[in-house]
């Protein structure tokens, strides 16, 4: 496909952005009393209100045309049918197969992958029951009370976010923890107070080659050997692995029967539906995990079947493209008004920024337009007392996604009422600002700032599954329109290579580094190894 900037609809959108530059969103509601009904959608347990975007009807039409001109229908069909759309890695992108509830086969190189997907779910189911029913015990006979997932990026953020979101579905006698940072204090903090003989480690890593995860897993093994009555041979009973690289897992010492597979056609940041979701199933039970998959499947069906005008992922994607490519927004704020969704911004940061943080298109050309926004966020109402000042009065234009669930426990009803009324107030304040005459004073809020509001009937596994699939497909649609590959992440390799180089060279071979890096290497080296010479000039602490 040629660059989107060459498309007629794209050029029209540029003209419309100019001609509507001074529009006020609030005026659209005066002009059309049915705007809220026209610009909101309900899909399953999710409700999206996108009427508070600076989008006049001709803009909406041109955006829909842009989706059509971008061959989105064909690209979507290619993804669902297993075409190798991840062209730089020559892989299909089939996270949707992991939650395919139909009997429809999904082929990869002519092979239906669904039998393997179902077999993997059966293994997760059996293992989950064994652990939760107390049949799976450590070699010293104790049942498992603590699950510790060791993984990073897509092997952490998804399961971590979902486990936090579904806290109400978890049992008090089985707790789930996540260790990701290579900083040893993360593992130390998590292991503090855990009974090693009642702890199960899930080593989650697609490649089984990620430094952070391997270092943390080795340290966890040492901790278990040192602090339990297990022999070296028995330690294996406390470790399972989730990976596409079974050989490496076996080499690490994981028993064959304790390995859970998945496949290279599943991107890390799209992998929580696979065995990478094992910690979720262990935390909330296999039935709730299945409901999560079913919710995502419902969203897949909607994405494939609904016309673009009433297609929630497509609409959300187009609002983002209008705000960033035509109105100049650099960032996208994600503000969940639900404490249980506090990990959602971090999860969406990887999903969106690792997918669409690209500047070379599918033809290998440098793009001439903005691509993935900077995604950031924090829970509301905390954000109100932190950065909302800038959202209301700052010079920057920040589109916001507000996300909340309607249902809450009786015991926190008063809190929940305050939470939701604050969210509604913030979305309204961003759009309307305050009265005219105040605008020039330091207390005035200019308003005219867009937001989407996403309401979940309740924070159930099904709705959480649908919510995540919604954003996965939003990211996909934007990648198609920007004509980039949303499914590789070559940009992360350089830093990893350099880290290996530096750790090899830091003691004796720093000449080939720039002066700043060389200087810092010296300081760090002296900090880490005081015996290598005085650190008179700058104390960086012992580090050991
Ligand atoms: O699951 P793995 O192979 O350990 O990789 C972890 C993460 O590292 C990345 O490759 C980025 O470095 C992510 O794409 C991935 O989710």
Task: Please give a structural write-up.
- There is one protein chain.
- The radius of gyration is 25 Å and the shape is globular.
- It has helices at 8-19, 25-31, 35-38, 57-69, 72-80, 114-132, 157-165, 184-191, 211-227, 246-252, 278-284, 286-305, 312-326, 344-356, 388-393, 413-432, 461-481, 493-505, 515-528; strands at 40-43, 46-49, 107-108, 111-112, 146-150, 175-179, 199-204, 239-243, 259-261, 331-336, 374-377, 400-405, 451-456.
- By secondary structure, the protein is of the alpha/beta class.
- The N and C termini lie far apart (53 Å).
- The strands form 3 sheets. Strands 1-2-13-12-10-11 form a 6-stranded mixed sheet, with helices on both faces.
- The chain contains 19 helices and 13 strands.
- Bound molecules: 6-O-phosphono-beta-D-fructofuranose.
- The site of 6-O-phosphono-beta-D-fructofuranose has 14 residues, from loops.
Given helix and strand content, the structural type is alpha/beta
Radius of gyration: 25 Å
Shape: globular
Oligomer state equals: single chain
Number of strands: 13
Strand order of the largest sheet: 1-2-13-12-10-11
Largest sheet: 6 strands, mixed
Helical percentage:
40-55%
- Strand content is 5-15%
| Beginning-to-end CA distance, first to last residue | 53 Å
Tally of helical runs:
19
Ligand list: 6-O-phosphono-beta-D-fructofuranose
* Uncertain residue segments: 534-544
Can you give the mean pLDDT? 95
Keywords for this entry:
isomerase, Glucose-6-phosphate isomerase, single chain, glycolysis, binds 6-O-phosphono-beta-D-fructofuranose, five-stranded parallel beta sheet, alpha/beta, 544 residues, six-stranded mixed beta sheet, gluconeogenesis
């Amino acid at each position: 496909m040629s660059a989107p900037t060459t498309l007629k609809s794209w050029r029209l959108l540029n003209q419309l952005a100019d001609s509507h530059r001074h529009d006020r969103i609030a005026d659209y509601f005066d002009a059309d009393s049915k705007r809220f009904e026209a610009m909101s959608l309900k899909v399953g347990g999710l409700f999206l209100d996108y009427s508070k975007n600076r989008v006049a009807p001709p803009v909406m039409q041109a955006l829909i045309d842009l989706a059509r001109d971008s061959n989105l229908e064909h690209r979507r069909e290619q993804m669902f049918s297993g075409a190798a759309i991840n062209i730089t890695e020559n892989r299909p992108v089939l996270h949707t197969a992991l939650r395919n509830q139909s009997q429809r086969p999904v082929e990869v190189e002519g092979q239906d992958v669904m039998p393997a997907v179902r077999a993997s779910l059966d293994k997760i189911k059996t293992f989950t029951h064994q652990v939760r029913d107390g049949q799976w015990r450590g070699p010293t006979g104790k049942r498992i009370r603590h699950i510790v997932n060791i993984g990073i990026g897509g092997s952490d953020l998804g399961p971590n976010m979902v486990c936090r979101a579904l806290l109400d579905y978890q049992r008090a006698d089985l707790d789930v923890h996540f260790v990701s940072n290579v900083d040893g204090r993360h593992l130390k903090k998590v292991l503090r107070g855990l009974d090693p003989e009642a702890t199960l480690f899930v080593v989650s890593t697609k490649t089984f080659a990620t430094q952070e995860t391997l270092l943390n897993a080795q340290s966890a093994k040492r901790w278990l050997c040192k602090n339990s009555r297990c022999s070296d041979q028995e330690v294996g009973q406390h470790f399972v692995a989730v990976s596409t690289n079974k050989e490496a897992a076996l080499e690490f010492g994981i028993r064959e029967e304790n390995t859970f597979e998945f496949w290279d056609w599943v991107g890390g940041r799209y992998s929580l539906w696979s065995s990478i979701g094992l910690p979720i199933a262990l935390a909330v039970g296999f039935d709730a995990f299945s409901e999560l998959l079913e919710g995502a499947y419902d969203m897949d069906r909607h994405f494939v079947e609904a016309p673009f005008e009433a297609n929630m992922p497509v609409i959300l994607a187009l609002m983002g493209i209008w705000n960033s490519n035509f109105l100049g927004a650099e960032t996208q704020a994600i503000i969940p008004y639900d404490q249980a969704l506090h990990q959602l911004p971090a999860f969406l940061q990887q999903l969106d920024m690792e997918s669409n943080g690209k500047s070379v298109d599918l033809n290998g050309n440098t793009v001439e337009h903005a691509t993935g926004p900077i995604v950031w966020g924090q829970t509301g109402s905390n954000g109100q007392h932190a950065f909302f000042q800038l959202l209301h009065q700052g010079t920057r234009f920040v589109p916001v996604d507000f996300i909340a669930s309607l249902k809450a426990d009786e015991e926190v009803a008063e809190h929940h009422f305050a939470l939701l009324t604050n969210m509604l107030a913030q979305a309204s304040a961003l759009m309307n600002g305050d009265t005219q005459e105040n605008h020039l004073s330091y207390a005035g809020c200019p308003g005219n700032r867009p937001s989407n509001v996403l309401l979940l009937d309740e924070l159930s596994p099904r709705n959480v599954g649908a919510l995540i699939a919604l954003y996965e497909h939003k990211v996909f649609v934007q990648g198609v329109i920007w004509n980039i590959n949303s499914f590789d992440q070559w940009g992360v390799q350089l830093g990893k290579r350099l880290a290996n180089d530096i750790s090899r060279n830091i003691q004796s071979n720093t000449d080939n580094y720039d002066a700043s890096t060389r200087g810092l290497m010296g300081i760090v080296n002296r900090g880490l190894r005081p015996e290598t010479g005085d650190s008179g000039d700058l104390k960086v602490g012992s580090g050991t």
